[in-house]
Amino acid sequence: MTAEGGAKAPARVVVVDDQTVVREGIVMLLGLLPGIEVVGSGGDGEEAVRLVAELAPDVVLMDLRMPRVDGAEATRRIRAEYPGTQVVVLTTYADDESLFPALRAGARGYLTKDAGGDEIVRAVEDVVSGDAGLSPQIQRRLLERLAESEQPAPEPPDGLTTRETEVLVLIAEGMTNQEIAREMHVSTATVKTHINNLFAKTGIKDRAQAVRYAYRHGLAKPPGAALA
């Protein structure tokens, strides 16, 4: 990306956020930063896709939770239809439910809205050059997730089979027998058999005890529990 005379051209950026005050503030901030030219802004994922089609920016700074089309879906469409445009997520949220769908959709950068101007510039430059533009917080979470995936699963306690353990985990997640059956692609009768077996092996009397048992043996995490 080089301008006439060999000088490096600024990255052409579109800003997408459904909150007008936030969006205008980001546009104003970016206007003060070196190496960035804001060429457009929009209020939801539908507008993001349209602006990319019209303006062919280098980068979209994309919020996630927006009306009509959310940021992850807009990212997926942009990366599929306009691969020359990179996406950097700029959002309030850094939880797994926000982070990983956005990265799977094709976002090459992920920042939270407490990022400073220098961090935004660096992320934009990184994705334009083909690298990932991730905040230190997000990099740490990715490393933690990788470490978690490499840890062996705990051995099922009390002689539970793999399927009985799977049923127990789904009970701990709050699923009904019918939902468990759909998730495991088995009949409700089979689910009931697994439940009867695991109750007999563990001495569990009801679903509430089953949930506590799953937490105690590390098979599931209570809502809001810190991730390892």
**What structural class should be given to the helix and strand makeup?**
alpha/beta
Radius of gyration: 23 Å
Reading the helices and strands in chain order gives EHEHEHEHEHEHHHHH
* Count of alpha and pi helical runs: 10
Unreliable spans are none
State the name of the first-level CATH class of the largest domain.
Alpha Beta
Roughly what is the average pLDDT, rounded to an integer? 88
Notes on the protein architecture:
The chain has 228 residues and is an alpha/beta fold. The chain has two domains: 4-139, Response regulator (Rossmann fold), CATH 3.40.50; 157-216, Winged helix-like DNA-binding domain superfamily/Winged helix DNA-binding domain (Arc Repressor Mutant, subunit A). 50% of the residues lie in helices and 13% in strands. The protein has ten helices and six strands, in the order βαβαβαβαβαβααααα. The chain has helices at residues 20-31, 45-55, 71-81, 96-105, 117-128, 136-150, 162-172, 177-184, 188-202, 207-216; strands at 11-16, 36-42, 59-62, 86-91, 109-112, 133-134. Strands 2-1-3-4-5-6 form a six-stranded parallel beta sheet, sandwiched between helices. α2 (45-55) packs parallel to α3 (71-81), α7 (162-172) crosses α9 and α8 packs across α9 (188-202). It is elongated. The two termini are 42 Å apart.
What are the salient characteristics of this protein?
2 domains; alpha/beta; single chain; 228 residues; Arc Repressor Mutant, subunit A; 6-stranded parallel β-sheet; Rossmann fold; elongated
